[in-house]
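Form P-L/3: holo structure prediction, ligand tryptophan.
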Amino acid sequence: MSKQRVLSGIQPSGKLHIGNLVGALQNWVKLQEQYECYYFIADWHALTSQYADTAQLQEYIKDVLVNCLAAGLDPEKATIFQQSHVLEHAELHVLLSMITPLGWLERVPSFKEKQEAVTDKDLNTYGFLGYPLLQSADILIYKANYVPVGVDQVPHLEITREIRRRFNHFYGEVFPEPEALLTQFPKVPGIDGRKMSKTYDNCIYLSDSSKEVEHKVKTMMTDPQRIKRTDKGDPELSPVYHLHKIFSSKEEQNEVAEGCRTAGIGCIGCKKILIKNLFAVLEPIWEKRKYFLEKPDYLEDIIASGSKKAGETASETMEKARRAMNLKLS
Ligand code: TRP
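OUTPUT (holo model):
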């Protein structure tokens, strides 16, 4: 029996941070052992909102790739590629656009929410409206069975399933039904206590140096009511504790939580433990980042051969879709 197929993408819309590591990359690495995996850099998706200034796009594409490899994605096991190098995504996007009612796209929650939240860009564009449709094309073109994503992506999976159903209804069974593989992990707080996000500028980036990580944790927010060393605190109110929940052992978590409640440990001591544990996760990644960054030809090869391989699968599907729609003479 052939393996089930997994597909997921990540946008090169900024440098990747530890939230991306625990929320996506580490899960992708596990899945590559068990499934036939396609992982890609969604550069066209990044353009749907960051179209006006692409000066940093190359840098971000490279950062995504290097971090994927440093986190343990293995091009021998998973197909790693770049969306814009597989033109069939655009072809399927166009075909799907013919059958997609505008209302379906306008109703996707992220459409209005992001349009309202983002004030420094004009997101009143055709490309931005079509964002979920491009994602549908990404998923359907590989006949993916599973799509590992966070909860924020569930509406995009929903619309993919609806479009798939509509396509198959008009033209016959071409695409199998994809399912979200919800990535369960605790919310990763940024250094200011809000969700870690490049929009808030509160991230610990995978490309940060050890000095930067140390500085960011040392200046990180803690329980705001714990002002003096002798004040007792509530660990749940401290984003530092929430990072301990992700990066520290159960014993250390208990030790710092208890210490916080009783003022037995100071915030500096608590942060030192976190820094040690962050370093343990990040050091091998830093080492591998350095290794891959010194091999630009190898990086280009990975993208070229991954995109070629993905293109073969995509063009097989497209041939079926073209036939199903009667675009071929024979
Ligand atoms: N929209 C996804 C995100 O922002 C990225 C993405 C693009 C994606 N195409 C995809 C994820 C296809 C899964 C499958 O995280």
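COMMENT: The CA atoms of residues 12 and 60 lie 5 Å apart.
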